[in-house]
């Protein structure tokens, strides 16, 4: 299946995120950072509930580049979750979804026509 027209030819990956986080600047470090001419320290703060992390790749991104951007140690998944792996993956690129599912050892889902992944859960991720 090719990427849907809704995304202008871009590949989209959806990751079921049960331990989503937001990264915030540490307000207690702002003054010291300014004095020391460095970046303010960042804090990882949990976001409650089941979430879905959506990743849009530029047209022409290769399968391996997309997979690496999501999975490497400082990648998309690490930046958006405290979980070891997504609860599930879905993508407009079936090969990428299969690769990520195998890498993470998680369920692979099909995206719906509107881009939302199918789920049997009562609370959408």
List keywords for this structure.
single chain; 125 residues; alpha+beta; two-stranded antiparallel ribbon; 4 helices; 26% helix; disordered N terminus; disordered C terminus
Can I get a quick summary?
This protein is an alpha+beta fold. 26% of the residues lie in helices and 23% in strands.
Describe this structure in words.
- With 125 residues, this protein is of the alpha+beta class.
- The protein has a domain at 5-20 and 47-109.
- The chain is 26% helix and 23% strand.
- It contains four helices and six strands, in the order ββαββααβαβ.
- It has a four-stranded mixed sheet with strand order 4-1-5-6. Strands 2-3 form a two-stranded antiparallel ribbon.
- Strand 5 (88-91), helix 4 (94-104) and strand 6 (107-109) form a beta-alpha-beta unit.
- Helix 2 packs parallel to helix 4.
- The radius of gyration is 17 Å and the shape is elongated.
- Residues 1-5 and 118-125 have low confidence and may be disordered.
Q: From the alpha-carbon coordinates, what is the Rg to the nearest angstrom?
A: 17 Å
Amount of helix: 25-40%
Overall form? elongated
For the sheet with most strands, the description reads: 4 strands, mixed
Strand residue content: 15-25%
Strand order of the largest sheet: 4-1-5-6
Number of helices: 4
Structural class given helices, strands, pairing?
Answer: alpha+beta
Unreliable spans: 1-5, 118-125
Q: Please provide the ordered H/E string of secondary-structure elements.
A: EEHEEHHEHE
């Amino acid at each position: 299946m090719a990427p849907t027209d809704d995304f202008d030819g871009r590949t989209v990956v959806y990751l079921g995120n049960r331990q989503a986080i937001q990264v915030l600047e540490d307000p207690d470090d702002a003054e010291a950072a300014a004095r020391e001419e460095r970046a303010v320290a960042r804090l990882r703060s949990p976001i409650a509930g089941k979430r879905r992390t959506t990743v849009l790749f530029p047209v022409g991104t290769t399968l391996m580049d997309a997979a690496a951007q999501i999975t490497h140690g400082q990648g998309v998944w690490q930046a958006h979750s405290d979980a070891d792996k997504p609860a599930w993956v879905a993508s407009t690129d079936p090969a990428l979804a299969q690769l990520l599912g195998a890498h993470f050892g998680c369920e692979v889902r099909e995206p719906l026509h509107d881009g939302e992944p199918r789920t049997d859960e009562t609370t959408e991720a």
